Each structure stands twice: as C-alpha cells, then as structure tokens.
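Hi P.,

Sorry for the delay on this. The queue was packed all week, but I finally got your sequence through. Input first:
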Amino acid sequence: MHDIAILAIIWFSVFVASYLAYKTRLTPVLWYLFCGAILVNLGVVPVEMPVFIDDFAELGIIVIMFALGFEEETDNFISGIKRSWGIALFGAIAPFVIAYSAALIFWGDKSMALLCGLAMTATAVSLTMVSLKSEGLSKSPAATGIMTSAILDDIASLALVAILVPIAAGEASLTVSGVLFILGKALGFFLTVAVIGKWVFPSSKGILKIIPVVGWFNLRKVLAMGHGEYAVLALLLIAVSVGLLAHYFGFHPAIGAYMAGLVIHRDYFDFNEEKRVDYFKQAREIIDNVAFTWIGPVFFVTLGTKLIFDLELFTSVLPEAFILFVALFIGQVSSASLAARYTGKFDWPSSLMIGFGMLGRAELAFVVMNIAFVQYSIMSVEAFYTLMLTTFFLNISVPLTIRWWKYKFQS
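Then the structure:
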C-alpha cells in the first residue's frame, strides 16, 4: 500500500473518531486510539508503519506540544515548576515501585522488572493536555501543574533510560560520572532554550544587538515579513528546530517544541500599527488547527496501532495486566494527588485532577518497551503484552476520568 494511501485512511479515521466523540461526548483522543487499534488488527494498515507515517506522526506530537506551549504564559510555567516538584517526584516513584514489584512477582527477573518499572514511570503529557483542552481546562492551574510535573518526570525518565538500559543489558555499570553527564545535558538544554528566549529572539534590543548579523535578527522582524504572511511558517520552523535541539541533547523533540512555544510572547506580534489584524490570535488559531485537527491526530491514531490483538496471548496475560493497571491507577492517582495537595498547595479538586491527568503512558513507555523487547530481548513477550495492555487501559482512563471529574472540579 502506498504511504499516501495509509495517510488517507488515517485521516478518514480521524473524521470517524471525531464523529464518535461528538455522539458520545467523549474526548476525540480516546477514539483516535481506538480507531488505530481497529485499523491495524483488521489489517487495513500495516503493523509496521512506513517511515513516512512514523515521521508524520512525530511531527504531529511536536506541533501539538508547541501549540500547548504557545498558549501558556512563561511566568505561569516557572511558578508551576516551583509547585510541581513534589508531584513529579512522588508521582514517578510510586508507579516505578509498583511496576517493578509487580514484574518481579510475575516473572522473577530483576533486569526485566527494572525496565518494566521504567516504562511505567513517565507521564504521557501530550495525551493529558489534549484531553484537558477538549474539556476546556488546558489553562487551569491543574493543567499547568500536570504539564510542569510531567516534563520534569520525562526529563528524569529519559536520564534513567540512558543510565539503566545499559545496566539492565549488562553493558555498563552505574557511575557517578555517567549520571553527572546526563544531568549536565539536561541543564545545558534548558539553559540554551533560556538564552534563545531571553536574548536571541529579542536580540536587537538586548546585549546581542552589538554583534554583526545576530544583532539584526529579531523574531518580531521575522514574523512581520510579508505583513505576517510567513508568521506561521516561522513558528513551525522554530518548533521543529528547537525539537531537533532537544533530540540532540537526548530528549524527546516534543519537549523542545513545548519549550519553544513557551518562550514566544505576544509582544513579538505587535508589528501591525493599524491594529486591524490580531496576528497573535490569527497565528494561534492556525497552529491549533494544524495541531489538533489534521497533523496531531495522526500521532494518536498511529499510537493506537501499537496494540496488536493476539487472542490467546492476550487472554493469558489479562490477569497480570488488570492487576498492574489497578495497582498503577490507585498508586499514581493517590501519590500525585497527595503531592499536589501537600507540596504544591493545590486545592483537593485540582489535586485529584492532577492525579487523573498523570495516568497516561505513551511515548517514553513505548521507547523503553521497544528497547527492552526488540533491541536487547530483555523483556519477554508476556511482559511486553502485559505492559501494552496496561498502557492502553491507562491511556483510556485519562479522558474518561478527566471528563468525569470535570463537573466536580468546576463546581
């Protein structure tokens, strides 16, 4: 099948999912995942997606995260980090311990248990934020708490992947220098983004204005080209570029895209003296359309195709998957909620919303599972399918619990 034909089928499924979401009043994300699983198990799309579709899906999550960062105020994010450290810490420790312990009891392999715990640690921030946006809650304090703590979780989890995978595979040992190197990369990335936002984008007004060529560059001038006609192109280029920068530092490009959106302010769009057009609003509407209507959904449909149904195998691992799901659900919600309440000083409705929002598992979970199952053969096929089922149940829980709690949250 031609790659474009696969994309057309995925886009058609987005229409179907959107219609089902409208009829059932559930978030479209749930139906995107469902449609992806149905398509692959009916043989409509291949199990192994072509590179074009995988790259297109990755572009989708990059644009989604950029759109979410673009909507967020930098001051809110920074203050959110101060409130969210406890959520990130305790909300990561609990699922790691639960998954590690369960895997050790189920299969008795410490290396496999280590990677099972690692796979279940990082929150699928994109799934949660899109679910919150569909419910009109993406700008609430709870959403900021989820976003900041999830990013901190992802950074820590990515560092642990780099440290623990070679150890579990027997290729390396834990060293202080290795840990410091990874922490240094994380610090270097965020400092680089900070420099870009603080001095490079407004370079003609800051200390960089005295540097030839660099001093001429100003994001406001770039966005003003052609009376704002190239503003969206410039924004997408920034999102992808900073995403690639994050990838260079060893992080998921989506993290870089979110940070890129975070450092772009409304002030850069004040180039229309007549004030006839709100270019900031216009650009944000276009970016949102791209992210949540026609590129972003491809990521979630493709994510759904990761769940391949093998009835005999699925039946055999269903008890383990159900036990692990229930344990992770209770452990994740309770640990994140209590941390939000007592370290972040959120009220109880917001704390529980944060707990529900931290349930999702996606990008990093599949990365770890792929490394453990495919690359190193550390994880057994039973463990792999158990984690796949558990991840699917957790992802379904996110939009359902957020929608259920929304009414109590807003009351």
